[in-house]
Design a protein that fits this description.
By secondary structure, this protein is an alpha/beta fold. The chain contains seven helices and five strands.
Length: about 230
């Protein structure tokens, strides 16, 4: 790979996106990390995103302000909707309407400005919560659209949306990250983390994360609230 090949990495501060950042670095990309202050209730993730980006050697970390809470429709952006602490069927209320489409669109714009042909996102279709914008068909469709809708695509650049975790279980993801030197104690995954980043241990994201460390056979470094 040529030197100074750039990529935009969507980094939420959670376990999956941090692993993806480590993978992109391993592939030799200069990583420009992108996070969103979108009105989420679990804002400790923004501090975590900054921490993991710095720890894994990003070139630049950018936080874009969005107001997805102004339209609501999700337990993650509307404090009037409770975060479920029991398993549910179907698409859960923690789904944020069109979130990955919005996020990828901003990432695509920044990639064009940077002259980057590669965008990495930590979506996963194995251990996930049933979100429609985490499926292989969605990523393939978005990549096709990106190449149709941008100057870079029209001028012959092959824009790629990388989702390296798509077919991996949470335990596999954790093992891969540890092999790449990821410090998961820096990450926050909880849907209702405290301002200090303490996890509830009960929401869907916490359950998947906790089971992932069990499956990986490594100690869980997550800091949980008491009780």
């Amino acid at each position: 790979m040529a030197d100074n090949k750039r990529a935009v990495i969507l980094v939420s501060g959670g376990l999956d996106s941090t692993t993806v950042l480590a993978m992109a670095r391993k592939q030799g990309f200069d990583c420009y990390t992108l996070s969103f202050d979108y009105g989420q209730r679990h804002r400790a993730e923004l501090l975590a995103a900054e921490r993991v980006s710095a720890s894994l050697g990003d070139v630049e970390h950018k936080v874009v302000k969005l107001n997805l809470d102004s339209i609501g429709g999700s337990a993650l952006t509307d404090t009037g909707i409770a975060v479920p602490e029991e398993e549910t069927s179907g698409i859960p209320v923690t789904y944020v309407p069109a979130r990955n489409t919005v996020f990828l669109s901003i990432a695509l714009g920044w990639a064009e400005v940077l002259g980057a042909d590669d965008i990495f996102i930590g979506v996963n279709a194995v251990d996930y919560s049933g979100y429609p914008d985490c499926r292989p068909a969605y990523i393939a469709a978005y990549e096709a659209m990106a190449n149709l809708a941008t100057r870079a695509g029209v001028e012959g650049h092959n824009l790629r949306i990388h989702a390296p975790l798509m077919d991996m279980g949470k335990g596999e993801i954790i093992r891969a990250g540890i092999a790449l030197g990821v410090d998961y104690s820096l990450t926050v995954s909880c849907y209702q983390a405290t301002g200090e980043g303490l996890a509830c241990g009960r929401c869907d994201s916490c359950r998947l994360r906790r089971q992932g460390f069990v499956d990986a056979g490594v100690p869980d470094p997550t800091r949980y609230t008491a009780g």
